[in-house]
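Summary for the steering committee. The consortium agreed at its last meeting that each partner would contribute one worked example illustrating the joint modelling workflow. Our contribution is presented below. We chose a case with several input lines so that the handling of multiple components could be demonstrated. No manual editing was applied between input and output; the record is shown as generated.
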Amino acid sequence: MFWYDHSEKRILPWKSNKNPYQIWLSEIILQQTRVEQGTPYFLRFVERYPSITDLANAPDDDVMKLWQGLGYYARARNMLLTARQIRDEFDGVFPDSYDKIYQLKGIGDYTASAISSFAFDLPYAVLDGNVFRVLSRYFGIETPIDSSEGKKIFKALSHKHLDRKRPADYNQAIMDFGATICKPQLPFCLSCPLSDNCQARAKNIVSSLPQKTKKLKKRDRYFYYFVWKGPDAKTLVRKRADKDIWKGLYDFPLFETNELLKDLNLSNLWESDTWKSLVPNTPKGELSIKFSRTYIQLSTHQKIIAIFVEISGKVPSLSTLENEYKIISLSELKQLALPKTIQKYLETDLFPIG
Ligand code: SF4
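What follows is the complete predicted structure of the assembly.
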């Protein structure tokens, strides 16, 4: 705490008050996003939806559009569910106990502890990546942080060392210390105020801590998008409804494979159900078709490799289409919430958006 009290604090907009709605919002936005990237989003959300009831009453598409570019859209969907739960079950007033906060949809131990301590000064220690790193190094703990044993050890340790008189400051201090001094790469051990008692430093194992058991292997997914480029600047889209990546966002008609289609097996595209449902009677040879370059988007578990198959010509008539599709104009397309890959493609390739 001495270090925190005498260090230069990071000025962050959600730190300036104890508003639980704003603290919760910042925690959701920052879950998989850097502070520099998340801050403008936080400010836009607070301006557009000043209270949790305003957010709860917002149409899904508006919220997804405002979230566009942050990725991990399940966060936005869960955020809306939680806001509506608080509106409906708590009269729009954020609950003020750990147990009630923890019961909310989409809120786990970390977020419940953060809101309890930062908004209500309750004695709950937070455990995020920064805290795991500082504790594992300072105490020289080699138990993997993602094992059930490791979770118990670090939970008990963080709770034991929490400053019960100043839980909010303690939590902020240890997170800031991990973000600025005990960093993942090249920590400032030489100037670190804890270095004399740091076990990882004494055992020369700083760079190998914290340990993890799981090594995630990313799944490759190839997305072939059929994009109509009609002379009237109309195209075909659908809202993603399946329990999958980008749920609630809009994309083009899609054919997915596990591997890149080479020249010889491109016929798979024209044999696909997606293609056949769109143009059942038009031989592919009668259409002018061009392939885009590949676009890659990474998430925690998957690698999306997208290729846009551009079709010059009029969009198929709606009567032949399945209900899930709709024909829209370019100006309407710009208003929709889109995955980052599609946004990038639109800006650079298809219809450069000014
Ligand atoms: S001495 Fe290095 S590893 Fe130990 S707590 Fe300080 S910065 Fe972290």
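Residues 137-138, 181-182, 187-189, 192, 194-195, 198, 200-201, 206 surround iron/sulfur cluster (CB under 6 Å). The domain at 2-208 is CATH 1.10.340.30 (Endonuclease III; domain 1).
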